[in-house]
Amino acid sequence: MSGACWLTIDGEPPLRLSAGDCYLLAGGRPYEVAGDLGIEPEDGHAVYRRSPGGRTVRAHLAGEETVPGWLGALNDPQIGAALTLMHQQATHRWTVADLAAEVGMSRSSFALRFKTLVGLPPLDYLLHWRIRSAAEALRAGERTVASVAAEWGYASESAFSNAFKRVTGQPPARYRTAKPAPPAAPPFHE
Asked: What is the pLDDT of residues 136-178, one digit of tens each?
């Protein structure tokens, strides 16, 4: 709400956060939040318990109720692991069977649980993730559509353009020069 702090994720350089910033970490990597990088870290669970109204998104997710949508899906050990794989290896040619095997589930159980929690089938979610990420890259600079397509795993500019238009409603070149607006969001549960 006000002030600033440092977020340090295990193995990454510190990131300065300011008023209005928000962060979400998944995958269970250790991290530290501090107003000063020189302060000795303290256990976060104890700090939250001491603070008035100390319920963060984490406490809500750890509660007994099921949190619908993408955020709740991150809390599911297997679907959260699949989402992490998809985000970290978005250009990999994933199949539903591959993802299910990676998280120790049958293909059909995985597909059903993923769609129930996330609101989209796994490969539709991956398509939206790739296109939303590519859209950011298009708006961020002067790169060609072909180079962004290649970065996000598309073998041809044409295949990328077709997928991009299907998700955002407009071709990549027009999207880059259009008034900034977020790409069409997938219909996640709220």
From this structure: 999 887 889 999 999 998 999 999 999 999 999 999 989 888 7
- For 58, other C-beta atoms within 10 Å of its C-beta total 14
Contact assessment for residue 6 and residue 34, using Cβ atoms and an 8 Å cutoff = yes
**Cα Rg of the chain (Å, integer):** 19
With 50 as the cut, is the pLDDT of residue 126 above it? yes
Q: Please, which residues have CB within 8 angstroms of residue 8's CB and are 6 or more apart in sequence?
A: 14, 15, 31, 32, 33, 34, 37
Instruction: Report how far residue 59's alpha carbon sits from residue 61's, in angstroms, rounded to the nearest whole number.
Output: 5
Q: Would the CA dihedral through 62, 68, 71, 75 be positive or negative?
A: positive
Q: Rounded distance, CA 58 to CA 47, Å?
A: 13
The separation between CA 57 and the C-alpha centre of its own chain, rounded to angstroms, equals 16
In 3D, which of 155, 127, 151 has the Cα closest to residue 141?
Answer: 151
Contact assessment for residue 167 and residue 127, using Cβ atoms and an 8 Å cutoff:
yes
Q: How far apart are CA 87 and CA 76, in angstroms?
A: 16
Q: Tell me the pTM.
A: 0.66
Alpha helices in 31-171 (DSSP H): 44-50, 57-62, 69-75, 77-88, 96-102, 107-118, 122-140, 145-151, 157-168
| Amino acid at site 87 | H
Residue 102: Cβ within 10 Å count? 16
